[in-house]
Amino acid sequence: MVFRVYVEKKPGFDVEAHELSHELRHTLGISGLTNLRLVNRYDVEGISRELFERCVPTVFSEPQSDDVTFELPEAPGATVFAVEYLPGQFDQRADSASECVQLLSQ
Predict the structure, then answer these.
(1) What are phi and psi for residue 92, nearest 5 degrees?
(2) pLDDT, position 70
(3) Torsion of CA 51, 45, 91, 36, to 10 degrees
(4) Residue 55: what are its φ and ψ, rounded to 5°?
(5) Cβ 7 vs Cβ 67: under 8 Å
(6) Which residues contact 12 (CB under 8 A, 6 or more apart)?
(7) Is 25 exposed, middle or buried (0-12, 13-18, 19+ CB in 10 A)?
(8) Do strands 39-45 and 66-69 pair parallel, antiparallel, or not at all (unpaired)?
(9) pTM of the model
(10) pLDDT digit string (tens) for 12-42?
């Protein structure tokens, strides 16, 4: 079974989203951009539901600074696009998450 979780930084902690928004507006000249949300999606397979639930607040998010949902967050009227690594490309975030899940599961 594949488990999916979406993680977004809470307002005030969303520095990466603000930096990306600034870069898109000023470097690429996308002046119509008014707001940007950055949501990380994690798809996890090969573990039990119990282990996944233990990993959500420890591996995939930080409860003090992240909002976690199990459905894609609503964005009425927004343009949404996704970015992912190509097969074979190294994904540091996925590798680190995998190692942390292994540590928790022992």
Answers:
(1) -60, -40
(2) 96
(3) -80
(4) -80, -25
(5) yes
(6) none
(7) middle
(8) unpaired
(9) 0.88
(10) 999 999 999 999 999 999 988 888 999 999 9
Sequence-ordered alpha helix ranges (H) in the chain: 15-26, 49-55, 92-105
Distances (CA, A) of 22 to 29, 77, 106: 10, 21, 42
Q: Tens digits of per-residue pLDDT, 34-90?
A: 889 999 999 999 999 999 999 999 999 999 999 999 998 888 888 888 899 999 999
Whose CA is closest to 16, among 93, 98, 100, 97?
Answer: 93
Q: What angle do CA 28, 32, 36 make, to 5 degrees?
A: 80
Q: How far apart are CA 51 and CA 42, in angstroms?
A: 14
